Amino acid sequence: MLSLHKTICPLDCPDSCGLIAVVEDGRVTELRGDREHPVTRGVICRKMRRYPERLYGPERVLHPQLRVGKKGEGLFRRISWEEAYDVIAKRFGEIIDRHGSEAILPYAYAGNMGMANRFAGFPFFHRLGASRLDQTICSAAASAGWGLQCGDIPGCPPENAAQAELIVAWGINIKVSNCHFWPHVAAARRNGGRLLVIDPYRNDTARSADHHVAVLPGGDPALALGVLKVLVDEGLVDQDTLKRETEGFAAMAEVLADLQWSQLERESGVSRQAISELAALLAAAPRTFVRIGIGLSRHSRGGMAVRLIAALAGALGLFDGGPGRGVLLSSGAFPGGRDRLSWPSLAARPTRLINMIHLGHALTTLDPPLKGLFVFNANPASANPDGSAVRRGLCRDDLFTVVHEQVMSATARYADLLLPATTFLENLDLYTAYGHFYMGVARPVIPPLGEAKSNFQLFAELAARMGFDDPPFRHSCEERIVDFLRNLGGLPPGIDLGRVLAGELVHSTRSHGDGRVLRESGGGGFSFVASGGAGPSVPCLTPAGEAADPDLLARYPLRLIAPPHPDLLNSTFGERYAGRCGEVFVHPDDARRWQVAEGEQVELVNHRGRASRVVRISDATRPGVLVAEGIYWPTEQSPGINDLTSQKAADLGGGATFHETLVAFAGRDALAAIG
Ligand SMILES: Nc1nc2c(c(=O)[nH]1)N[C@H]1C(S)=C(S)[C@@H](COP(=O)(O)OP(=O)(O)OC[C@H]3O[C@@H](n4cnc5c(=O)[nH]c(N)nc54)[C@H](O)[C@@H]3O)O[C@H]1N2
Ligand SMILES: Nc1nc2c(c(=O)[nH]1)N[C@H]1C(S)=C(S)[C@@H](COP(=O)(O)OP(=O)(O)OC[C@H]3O[C@@H](n4cnc5c(=O)[nH]c(N)nc54)[C@H](O)[C@@H]3O)O[C@H]1N2
Ligand code: SF4
Ligand SMILES: [Mo]
Fold first, then answer.
1. Residue 132 forms beta bridges with which residues?
2. Domain 2-56: CATH class, spelled out
3. Staple partner for 201: which of 111, 186, 271, 621, CB 3.0–4.6 Å?
4. d(CA 400, CA 421)
5. Tens digit of pLDDT for each residue in 469-509?
C-alpha cells in the first residue's frame, strides 16, 4: 500500500519547506518537495531528501534508557517510561529539597521548529521554578540590532527580490542556508539583475555571484559606515529628502563626518576604492534588495553590524518598498503568541536567567550550582561554544542530566537518563518560517517508532506525574496550537482555524504585494536614532572583540570562522559522516607560511582547545582567515570545532560569537608565520 502525505520540514532553516512523504506498507520511503507549496515548488535540499535514512537509522534512540557506563561513554540499559518518569520525579524532588528549584535548568533550542513541540518543556519548568534559559545561540544579536533600528517592522517578502536590479547577500550563504531564495536571484538575473555577496570567503553563493566583497570577519560595521560616508560625501543620497522623510539623519551624518578612512579600511579589510565602488553600485540601483544573514552577527559587534546595514538601507530608502526594493533579515511574519506556548505566568516568581551560550560556565562555575539539566531539541555538546567547558560540566558526577533525543548525539552520550523523541513525521505541529511569510500545520505521517514520544507528550505526562494541573497542562497538542493561533499577529481577519488545522497554508498579512512593510504600531519613516536598548543611540564603530586583542593575536594570529556546511544542519545529520572531522580552507599564502599541505590533517589550537581538520588550500578565503564549514560529530582525534569558539557574548541580545575565533596550527612554529 502506497500513500502520499503532506508535511512540513521541521529543521532550523529559513525555508520551512512543504514536503510530500511517500509511505509504503507503513514505512516512509521517500521525501520530496511539495509542488503546491508556493516557496518549495517541488524542490528540497539534498539533506532532507535523505531524511528517511535518519528516521530508521541505527543511531535512532527508540526506548528510555538509564546510563550504565561513564558519562560520555554512551552505554545505557533499557527501562520503561514509567520508571523514567519515577527517576525524574525522584531526582528533581531531591534536588529541589536540597538546593532549591533554581538548581535545575532546561536547555533547548530549535532542533524542531514546530511551535508546540519547540516550546513544550517551558510551561513545566516555569511551574517547577527552574532557572530560565535565555535562548540566544542563533539570532539574538541580529534580532536585537534589527529591533533597535527598525522596531517591529517585519522583513520584506523575499518574492520582491525577483524584480531587483541588485540583490545583496550580506553575511548569508543563500545557496546553502536559504536555498529557496535562490530562484528569486535567478529571476532577477534573467532581467539583467546582479548579485553581490559580502562575506569573508567565496562561499557557494559568492562563487555564483557577479560581485564579491571579501570583508574581514566582524568588519561589516566599518564597511557599512564607509559606504554611508561615500553616499553622503559624494551626494549620492539626497540629504534634504532624508532629513524630511526619516528621523535622526543629522545625527548619523555627524558620526560619518568624524570617521577616518584609514580606520575604516583597516577594520573592514576593504580598500577605500572598493568601498566607493560598492557605494556607487548601490546608488545606481534603486531596485536594491538586501538579504541580511545571521552569520555576520556572530561577532562582538554583530548587533551593530545589523544596525548599520539597516541604517544604510534606510538611507537608500529601501524600507519604503516598491518593486524589487526591500530588506529581509527574518520575516517576522507572525509576531507574538509565544507566551501561549511557554507560559511564563506559571512561574511563582522570576527565577535566574542563564544565557544558553554560557552553558560551559553555568555547568562548571555557577554559584549556587546547577544540579539538574534537561536537554531537548538541542545538542549543546556539539553546537555550543567552548565545547571542552560544556563537556567538563556534563561529566560532573553530581549533575543529573536528562536528554530527550531522536539520535545518539554527542550530548545524549552524557545523559543519566536518555529519552526517545519522535521526529516531525511522527507528531503534530504548526510551522512558521523565518525566511518567508507562510505557515502551516502538519499531522503525523506515521505512528511513533519504538517508544518515542513527542516533546509535547513527554512534558504533558511529566507534568501529570508531578501533580501539576494548571490549565495549560490539560491542553492537548491541538488545543495548544489553537490557543497560540488565537493570540498570533499576522493572521488574516476571520481566518477559519479548522482549515488551518486541516493543513491549509496561511500567508501573513504583514506585507503588501509591492514589498512595502508595515509597522505593527504605526509610526513614521526609518529612524537612524535608536530608542532605548543597549549601546549608542546612533549606530557607530564600536570596539572589535577577540580579533583585536594584541596578546591573543601574537599567540594565535589566524582568524577562524565556522559557518554551516551544505550537508549538515548545525550538528544534525552528522551521523552520516561519522569519523570525518571536516575541512579547513587555508589561503595559499598561509599554507606556505605555516607549511601545511593540501589534504593534510592538522590540529587548530587556541587558549580554549583544539580541533582537527583536513587542509584545503584555496584562494576562496583571504590571507589570515581560516574557514571551517560544518559542525561534524566528534571523532577520536577531535571533539569538534566548537572546542575553539568562545562563550563571549555579542554586543546585543547576548548572542553568540562563533565567527570570532583566533587560532594557530598546533605544532607549527608561530614565529615562522610572522613577516
Ligand atoms: N545547510 C545548512 N543550512 C543551514 C544551517 C546549517 O547548519 N546547514 N543552519 C541553519 C541555521 S540554525 C541558521 S541560524 C541559518 C544561518 O544562516 P546564515 O544567516 O546564512 O548564517 P551563517 O550560515 O552562520 O553565515 C552565513 C555567512 O556569513 C558569513 N560570515 C561570517 N562572519 C561574517 C562577517 O563578519 N561578515 C559577513 N559579511 N559575513 C560573515 C559566513 O562566512 C557565511 O558564509 O542557516 C540555517 N541553514
Ligand atoms: N561552530 C558553530 N557552531 C554553531 C553555529 C555555527 O554557525 N558555527 N550555529 C549555531 C546556531 S545558528 C544554532 S541555531 C545552534 C543549533 O544548535 P542545536 O539546536 O543544538 O542544533 P543541532 O545541532 O541541530 O541539534 C538539535 C538536536 O535536536 C534534536 N531534535 C530534533 N527534533 C527534536 C524533537 O522534536 N525533540 C527532541 N527532544 N529533540 C529533537 C536533533 O536530533 C538534534 O540532535 O548551533 C550553533 N552552533
Ligand atoms: S532543510 Fe531547509 S531547504 Fe531543506 S527541506 Fe528543510 S526547509 Fe527545505
Ligand atoms: Mo541558528
1. 353
2. alpha beta
3. 621
4. 19
5. 999 999 999 999 999 999 999 999 999 999 999 999 999 99
